Predict the structure.
Amino acid sequence: MSNIRGRFQKDADKLVQQYTASIPFDRRLYQHDIAGSMAHAKMLAKQNIITDKDAELIGMGLVSIREEIETGKFQFKEELEDIHMNIEARLTEKIGDIAGKLHTARSRNDQVAVDMRLYCKEAIAETIKGLRGLQSALLDVAETNMSVVAPGYTHLQRAQPVLLAHHLLAYFEMLERDVQRFQDCLKRTDVMPLGSGALAGVPYPIDRAFVAKQLGFSQVSQNSLDAVSDRDFVIEYEAAASLVMMHLSRLGEELVLWSSAEFGFIEIDDAYATGSSIMPQKKNPDVAELGRGKSGRVYGHLMGMLATMKGLPLSYNRDLQEDKEGLFDTVDTLLSTLAVFAGMVKTLKVKADRTSQAAGQGYILATDVADYLVKKGLPFRRAHEVVAKLVSYAAEKGKELQQLDLGEYQQLSPLFDASVLDISVASSIKARNAVGGTAPEQVGTQLARARGLVKSGGGGY
Ligand code: ARG
C-alpha cells in the first residue's frame, strides 16, 4: 500500500501484503471498477466538484488503462493490494496529481460495493441465459421423443408409466423456478451504493441518481452504513446457484443411472463421455458425475459466505473481501455446468425400446386395474386390496397382469369384465389427463407453454 502509507513509518511486511492482497482474484473486476470510476468522474464534473477538463483527463486515462489490461500490458502489483489501488496508481502515473481527484466523495468501501453489484448483475444475466439454454435442450429431447413411454418411479421402484417427455419437463419446471429466483435476486442487486463514502455518506453535493443512471442501476441505496457492508446480493446469488446445482445434480444422477447397463434408457454421446484408462469397454458419464459433484463446492461457498457475515458489526469490515473467490467460483462453476449439461442433454440418444419394455413390466399397471374397479363402484381401499392379491397371484404364476386371462381376474372379483383386458401402458398414460398429468394432450400443452416461456424470456407463474 505504498501510495497510501500516510501515517505509517514503513511498508507492510511482505507476508502481510500477500495475506491481505485481493489483486490475485479481484482483478477480474477491472471493467466494473473502471465503469464505476468513469460515471463517478462524470458526475463530479457535472456537479462542479471537479472541472470538466479534469474529468476528461481522468476518463481518457481510464480508457487507456482498460486497454492496457485487455492487451496484457498492465502490470498488476500485489503491494498495491487490490484492483482499485492498482488502477488508481496507474492513473497517477499517466495523468499525474489530477488522478487523485477521482477519489473525491468516494471510498474504496462504496467503490468495491458498486463493482460487486455490477459484476453480479452481469452474472445474473449470463446465468439466466445458461438456464434458458439447458431448458431448450430438455425441450428438444422431449419433443423428438414425444411418443416414448418410460417407467415413472417412486422410491426408485417402478410405479406408473409416464411419457419420457413428461419426465424431462419436470426438470424444465425446476429450471423455470431457478430463472425466477435469479430475476427476483436481480431486483435487490440492482441498487447503486456509490455515494455512501466510507460509511457515513459524503459531504459533497453529489448526484447519486445520475451515477445510477450512467451505470444502469434502477435505484440508489438508502442507508450508507448498510450499503457499504451489505453482501446479501452475493449470498442470494449463491443460494439461487445452490438450488440450480441441486437440480443439475439430480439430473446428473438420473443420467448416470439411465446410461448404466442396468437401466439402458439412454446413451450419452461420445463427445460427453470418457473412457477408462484400464477397462477398454468402459464409457463413463463423467460430465454428469462432475455436475453432481460440483454441487458440493457451490453449497460450500454459500455456507462460507453466511459464516463470514454472521458476526460482522456495522459497517465495512475487511472480512467482506472474502466475498469474492467464493462468488467467482460459484459463477464459473454454475455457468460451465449449465453449458456442458445443455450439450450433453441435447445429444443424448434415447433407447425407446428399452424404456417402453421397462414401462410394461413390474406390475406397473396395478393402479390402473384398481382405478378400473373403483369406476365399477368399489371403494378405492378395497380395490387396492383386490389388486394386491391379483399381483401376488400373477407373481406366483410368473406372469405380468396383462398376461392374465379374464377367468383369472374374475376369481378375485366379479366386477371384472372383458374390458379389463384393454388396460395397457398407453391407456394408463392417456387417462391421466388432468392439468399437469402425463397424458399426451397435457404434455403437449406443457411443451408449448414451455417453448413460449423460453422464447419470451419471462417468468412462468
Ligand atoms: N479489497 C477490498 C475488498 O475487497 C476493497 C475495499 C477495501 N477497503 C478498505 N477499507 N480496506 O473488500
The pocket of arginine is lined by residues 22, 26, 82, 108-109, 112, 316, 318, 320-321 (CB under 6 Å).
